[in-house]
């Protein structure tokens, strides 16, 4: 499929052929859901922890009398039924990540790219470069493109001036093609790819 290539000033700069096998597959919500869950699970720190009975420093001797006290025959004060005692079945530090087949991850990225193309929210620009890293200059160009909430994906490397200007604009992210992922694509309204990104993603998803 062919699509127009624009400049950052929203002027036509030719066209480009998009691979049907990458940008034309049917978007599968179940695959997208699995991949996003996999990504977010890997991000979790898993450092939550509580103190169990063995971690509490309190007496283990019986308090009170065995009989006639009018209370239960309690022993250790480290028990979880007392204030200050250890927790029962609390969380422990662990890794929340899980494995996901490469085929599923690749299909998820294809589905995310295809869904943006199907919704008409995919823009291809010739290059994402700025002479000066000025936020005001980039904001003016984004207004011409009609973009306010977007993910820019460049080639192997991101232009330093473009990245510097974009860092001060809310709801605008910039990634190299190697960092393109399902979660970041879906969380932004518009996906903007450079010609270099289209070529690199094509090689990555063959």
What strand order characterises the main sheet?
Answer: 2-1-3-6-4-5
Distance between the termini: 16 Å
Uncertain runs:
none
**Sequence of secondary-structure elements:** EEHHHEHEHEHEH
CA-based gyration radius = 27 Å
How many beta-strand elements? 6
Largest sheet, strands/sense/barrel: 6 strands, mixed
> What fraction, in percent, of the residue positions are helical?
25-40%
Instruction: Please tally the helical runs, counting DSSP H or I stretches of 4 or more residues.
Output: 7
Q: What is the typical, i.e. mean, pLDDT?
A: 93
SSE class: alpha/beta
Strand content: 5-15%
Shape: elongated
Structure description:
This protein has 206 residues and is of the alpha/beta class. 34% of the residues lie in helices and 14% in strands. It has a six-stranded mixed sheet with strand order 2-1-3-6-4-5. A hairpin with a 5-residue loop joins strand 1 (2-6) and strand 2. The longest helix has 17 residues, at 102-118.
Descriptive labels:
single chain; 206 residues; alpha/beta; six-stranded mixed sheet; elongated
Q: What's the SSE blueprint?
A:
Elements: E1 2-6, E2 12-17, H1 20-23, H2 29-43, H3 102-118, E3 122-125, H4 135-145, E4 150-153, H5 160-166, E5 172-175, H6 182-187, E6 190-194, H7 195-204
Parallel strand pairs: 1-3, 3-6, 4-5, 4-6
Antiparallel strand pairs: 1-2
Helix pairs in contact: 2-3, 4-5
């Amino acid at each position: 499929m062919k699509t127009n290539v624009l400049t950052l000033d929203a002027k036509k700069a030719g066209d480009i052929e998009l691979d049907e096998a990458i940008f034309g597959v049917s978007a599968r919500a179940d695959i997208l859901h699995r991949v996003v869950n996999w990504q977010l699970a890997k991000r979790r720190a898993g450092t939550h922890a509580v103190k169990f009975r063995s971690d509490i420093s309190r007496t283990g001797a019986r308090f009170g009398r065995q009989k006639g006290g009018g209370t239960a025959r309690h022993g250790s004060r480290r028990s979880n039924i007392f204030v200050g005692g250890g927790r029962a079945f609390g969380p422990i530090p662990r890794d929340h990540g899980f494995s996901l087949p490469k085929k599923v991850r690749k299909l998820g990225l294809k589905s995310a790219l295809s869904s943006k193309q199907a919704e008409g929210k995919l823009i291809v620009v010739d290059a994402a470069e700025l002479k000066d890293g000025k936020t005001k200059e980039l904001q003016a160009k984004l207004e011409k493109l009609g973009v306010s909430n977007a993910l820019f994906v460049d080639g192997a490397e991101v232009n330093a001036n473009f990245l510097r200007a974009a860092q001060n604009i809310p709801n605008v992210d910039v990634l190299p093609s190697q960092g393109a992922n399902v979660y970041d694509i879906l969380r932004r309204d518009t996906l903007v790819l450079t010609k270099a990104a289209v070529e690199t993603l094509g090689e990555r998803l063959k």
